[in-house]
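Quick one - inputs below.
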Amino acid sequence: MTDPRELSDELPAVAALRSLSVFSADQAGAYREHFQRLGEALGADVPTRLAQYVAAWAKSGQAGAVVLTGNAGTGKTAVAETYSRAVGSDLPEGDDLCEVATGRWVVKDLSGLPDDAARRSALQAVLGGLTTGSSQYLVCANEGVLRDALDILDHEDLASALDQSLRSGAAEVGKLVVVNVNRQRPTAPGLWDALLDFLVRGDLWSGCTGCPFDLGSCPMRSNAEALRDPRVREQLRTLVRLGAGEAVPTIREVLSVLAWAVVGDRTCKQVKAATRDMERAAFTATDGYFTRVVGGGLSLDAIERSPLMSGMRTAQLGHVSDLEIDGWLRDTTGAPEEVRLLAGDPSLVEDGPDGSLALAGSRSPLDRVRTKQGTMTFHHLGELVSTSEDPTKVDDGLDALVSGDRDSNAPAQVLWRQRLYFEASQALGGADVASKRLLGYRYVADLVRLAQKAARSEDVVIEVSEVVRGLNFLVTGFSSPHEGLVVPDPACLFARDPGSFRPARPSLVYGLVPLERLSVRVPDRGLVERLLDVDHVDVELVVDGRDDLSLRIRPKMYEAVREAADFQGPVGQGVAEMNDLRGFYSRLASAEVAGDAIRVADPDSDPPALVKVNLPYFATSGGHSAR
Amino acid sequence: MLVDSRNLTPGRVAQVLFGLDPDRDERAPQLCAETLLTLAQNRYRAPASSDELRSPKRQRFALRSLALATNFLAGREGRAGEDNMTPHLYGKLLASGSDVRNSANLALAQSALQGLVDPDTQRGQPGAWLLRPFHESLLWYDARKAPSRPDWTVRKVYMRGSGITLARLLLAPSDPEAAEQGARAVSAIQEALTGPSPLADISRRLESALQTGEPYTKTPDTEEDEKAAWERGEDELLQPLAASLCRHAEGVMCQGGASGPAKLWQLRTILALDLAVHALRVAWDATSTPEEDRFLLLSFGGGPRAQDRVRQRSEESYRRARIRLNEATVSTVARIMRQLVEKKTVAWGQEFEKRSKLDQDKSEDGLLHQLAKLNARSSDDEYLRLARTSVESANYGRAEDGFRVLLESVGLVAGTRYRYLTATPDLLAALVGALSSQMPMPSNEFFAAVRQEWGLVINQESAASTSLRGQVDGAGLERNARRAERLMSEAGLALSLSDRTTVVGERAQRRSK
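Output:
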């Protein structure tokens, strides 16, 4: 990693962020071993709840062991460093068991030890010390090596605590606490703002010598400035929540994506040189955080390396059209003032220093686009395609609007929608409405609200009923919640294709679960809420409070359920959702006693009703009239 | 070994080569249905001898009249449930979805059953349509209507006996470890096929109206070729197939987190895939294929063919596999020819299949004339030359076609003009399920296991030991692997973690582990 301080004409934060991004060659800053120099540029670590807990434990001196397990990049080593500091020491150099202060032991990385024997020996020393002594032990290990070592050591307490922590996030058995750091969510309240502040807070971005920001020509500082806006942060948080999907992203990955969004692969020197040559035309919205955060400027191969970024792209930000929003780009006259400012409407802003008509009203690279007719503001591009009488100009404008240059510049309408999603949420009707209008997920805000109500144990009866309506439609094509949750015969689930435009066939009903037996809860509850930063963004639908009869409802599943409930037509669900449903209903069918009659959920019955099928009666039927 | 009166028929050659006779009509649905029917008819136990084998020919004409909206009891006289109802009338009412004897809403049940017809079987006449193999009560054997008569009878249409052999391999493999796995698999299959279900209630009730012991209800006597198919399961040549079949079936059926129907659906895929891979491995051995050429490359592209090197190599691996199967047939024909020459004076015209018409060419330079000149001292090349001429002149492509349709019916072959190998989410689910005893595992280990078990190459690491290493650049194969991982993640079969690892099979892992 290049030492940020060695570059006299570069802002330290710029070099630091570039090294944080795993999308470029210099990514050393993404690793804790190189954090010291990064820390000098960006300041102290992001404070996590886990670090606070461990620091408080260190100060208390209470004997015991804390085992942190999780993927690389979740922040285990950072917590070990916090612990070491709290006991007046530094993070040990080596990975093996090290006494950082009297009676305070740290295993920095169990998987870093040379072989199985060394790992077992370190773990045995910890477990032995835990039983007999009054010391504190902090162990960082990923699940695989921990389990391998445990298979030999056969330590019941640690094995059961590990299992429990993998299921519920954290477990405490006697003096032993095991924390599954994979459950830490970067979008948790507090942590989210801290992560963004870590990268874009004002004091980091005061500008380098000769910075062209005041001329409206430093895309990096413009990005950083935008990301200090709470409304922009909230919109980005929604996008990250969606992108997180099944695998919660690590802090390292989130920092990497954010760093790419802010600086990309730019340097201060490059920005200054380009501005000197091309003035305000040097940079455009293609350098904007709003497009980079979803992979702008990266090849598909590079994007594929980040599950978070790939996940965020499934929200299709910029590719969901909205008539009004697209109309504002072509003609800003009727748009709210906030939107006109973002478009670079010259009637609201004094003309820029170069007096160019095409760039009149531009405030930063974020409101500019490149066309074959030169660089211009969104406003000017709209005027060009709407009012110009020169067919060449109109064609060039339309090309820029819908196609970009098919190389490095995205289509202007994509950039416009992306920017408005982040920066004009109020003008669009609020954050939730902006998400509904511009993301492929329409119900994510409702899911977060439901999760937070469930976390506070508030009444969610109406929401449960709506979920049941959607589930009933998804699995049987029958959309009433009044009979309760319809459990179809598991075989009939294979006849269902909720994404198909063909009418659903009737499904045989295995049983019914009344609404009173259903509840909604959040997956992260209890100890894990105390130890980790969690963010309630998905829920579990549970039958009789039983863990084995629960259905995890994540954003994609919720989308399918709500679409099914609201539209009762084909839904944009995925194979994974149907696989989940097949598993859930199969467990339900195994646990429930079959109904005493054959009933069919008939999608065509009006009003919706379960129809009883009476089988023919024959003398040889054995005397049963129905089933 | 040479027992038949005709030793050079395509079926005989295939049996000598592969241990069984794959056929182009025998696709995954038929293979699975015949296997499950054999298991169910024999109460999930191996009969003491082939004489005690019960035929898989279940009729279920009442149920299939309702499900397929075709009267399979047409022309049948007698009594069905009541004195004034004949089986013919009963079948007619069921086929039209009309209510019978105080029933109500049978049409809805009919519509529900129609949703369960296996889409891969919906071609040709309805006698060969099958329901998805989700319950014992939904299984039936192919039926055909005699051209000049109204009645339907169960008979071979697309089921050709390979399913009987596969059932034997599951129930009684010679290897003790395979036997244990097979027993667990069969026990789980029985559990899945016999669980409580409204579908079973419908089937039982409708069939109960028909009198037992009638030609349309009684299981026909076991035929000699069915007994022979059962006995083929003893063949040493099939024991490697038995071992992989038992291992994979046990994996699929004992996995966690999947419903009974989901497991049976995966089993349908695995049976066909294992049989196809067995045929290919035998062909590789028979043609002494170098180890580095023994693979099938799966492509997970999406871009234009011209720029997709992995897809082009995948097409090539598929094409080569088919050539190897053909070459193996040629070498087996040559081997049988030599055995015949060494054993007796051969009447060559009587060794080939009659319809091949190879026996009709009596000219001086005709095949028969050239074959007559063969003797024990003739060179191997001469035998091979004449074998190739025979194979090119007659229809010996059944095994190769059988391999093709098996791969097609499990979702391994894609493309129209340029056919290449890939994997659908259903196929990937079956692969994950078959390896459930080792799940979860990182994706690179999964790709290695898939290479080991089925010879399928997906990523760079697996390709390193093959001739692909000099043909496709590593980045292309890594991209291929990432796309496979993404497909698995989207299908709920894998989890992509932020540290760039993908964990496969979290849901399929066994909870008791």
